[in-house]
Automatic annotation (TrEMBL):
GO terms for molecular function: ATP binding; creatine kinase activity; protein arginine kinase activity. GO terms for cellular component: extracellular space. It comes from Virgibacillus pantothenticus. SUPFAM superfamilies: Glutamine synthetase/guanido kinase. Appears to be allosterically activated by the binding of pArg-containing polypeptides to the pArg-binding pocket localized in the C-terminal domain of McsB. The keyword ATP-binding applies. This is Protein-arginine kinase. The keyword Secreted does not apply. One of its GO terms (biological process) is phosphocreatine biosynthetic process. Belongs to the ATP:guanido phosphotransferase family. ATP binds at residues 27-31, 92, 126, 177-181, 208-213. Pfam families: ATP-gua_Ptrans.
Length: 354
């Protein structure tokens, strides 16, 4: 596999497209948790019951199409190496929790990688659907349609009073998590994000890192999602999240302009120094790479850097993760070896654009 071919696989096809406000909102995601009626949740089910669910999805949905989501590929987690599992996590196609499961865990992934259906994670079904940019309402509508298609063959665990029943009580009701991935470098640089996060939490939303719960917000990328699933409709939850995200977009844009006015030279210096590190470094750790990539992306969005495309940075954010580096090397690497390979791949990728 050539470097260029590998790069084409490092980023999902849908991530190459710009969406509304994509200079700040990287993606919109709807995740729906569902369970089979009259079957114990994965944490309580016996291996035979979970294997029957796994086999059901393989038989009914492998290779199937629904709308623009073509050729659903069925992948058994037990057939993957540790590195392959990590790659799927890094591309947000499966959760870290599913990657730890083995025997009856699986995932269905659409050809464009916008839809992935995790099987036997915390719930029997975790459907997640992505769209580029700020498109929560459209993502919700498409997730509903996909969910309805699944329900034609599945009897969901549902209570007229409580809504959808899930393994974790915090998901009961709609069973939905709506989230956006946002790049907020100016709010971080001006330290405004420190007071905003507690305020956002008080609104029933939660701020996490790029890989969700328990992850760090590397590269100034934050995931904003709802906490409440019971007592509100899906539309109301999305509307509340949209309202907060719109305010964050406005404040991030204003903070960027203020940085240009008040610290223009320092900002340009930060951006070009970061580009220099990426273009010439021989060793670079993942955290430093994420910071430099964030700074360079800010430079692109502000029109200060014109020789690098935003898509390249999207690719590099994923490509330079530990799983992808080891997949590319076709072997397990020590941390120092990953730092060297990371720097080498970044240099080569930036050179391809010149």
């Amino acid at each position: 596999m050539t470097l260029q071919q590998f790069m084409n696989e490092a980023i999902s096809p849908w991530m190459r497209k710009d969406g509304p406000d994509s200079d700040i909102v990287l993606s919109s995601r709807i995740r729906l948790a569902r369970n089979f009626a009259n079957v114990p949740y994965p944490i309580a089910a016996d291996p035979k019951e979970l294997e029957e669910i796994r086999s059901f999805f393989k038989e009914k949905y492998e290779g199937q199409d629904f709308g623009s989501y073509k050729d659903l590929a069925f992948v058994s987690i037990r057939d993957l190496s540790a590195i392959e599992r990590r790659v799927l996590v890094e591309k947000h196609l499966i959760s870290p929790l599913l990657a730890k499961h083995s025997e009856a865990a699986a995932v269905l992934i659409s050809e464009n990688e916008q839809v992935s259906l995790m099987i036997n994670e915390e719930d029997h079904i975790r459907l997640q659907l992505y769209l580029p940019g700020f498109q929560l309402s459209e993502a919700l509508q498409q997730a509903f349609e996909f969910d309805d298609w699944l329900e034609e063959k599945i009897n969901y665990a549902f209570d007229e009073t409580r809504g959808y029943l899930t393994s974790c009580p915090t998901n009961v009701g709609t069973g939905m998590r709506a989230s956006v991935m946002m790049h907020l470098p100016a709010l971080v640089l001006t330290k405004q994000i420190n007071r905003m996060i507690p305020a956002i939490n008080q609104l029933g939303l939660v701020v996490r890192g790029i890989y969700g719960e328990g992850s760090e917000a590397q590269g100034n990328i934050f995931q904003i999602s709802n906490q409440i699933t019971l007592g509100k409709s899906e539309q109301d939850i999305v509307a509340d999240l949209q309202s907060v995200v719109k305010q964050l977009i406005e404040q991030e844009r204003y903070a960027r302009q203020q940085l240009i006015k008040q610290s223009g030279d320092k900002l340009e210096d930060r951006i070009y120094r970061s580009y220099g590190v990426l273009a010439y470094a021989r060793i670079i750790e993942s955290k430093e790479a994420a910071t430099c990539l964030s700074n360079v992306r800010l430079g692109i969005d502000l029109g200060l850097l014109k020789n690098v495309s935003r898509n390249i940075l999207n690719e590099l954010m994923i490509l330079t993760q530990p799983g992808f580096l080891q997949h590319y090397a076709k072997k397990t690497l020590a941390a120092s070896e990953r730092d060297q390979l990371r720097a080498s791949l970044i240099r080569q990728r930036l050179q391809l654009e010149q």
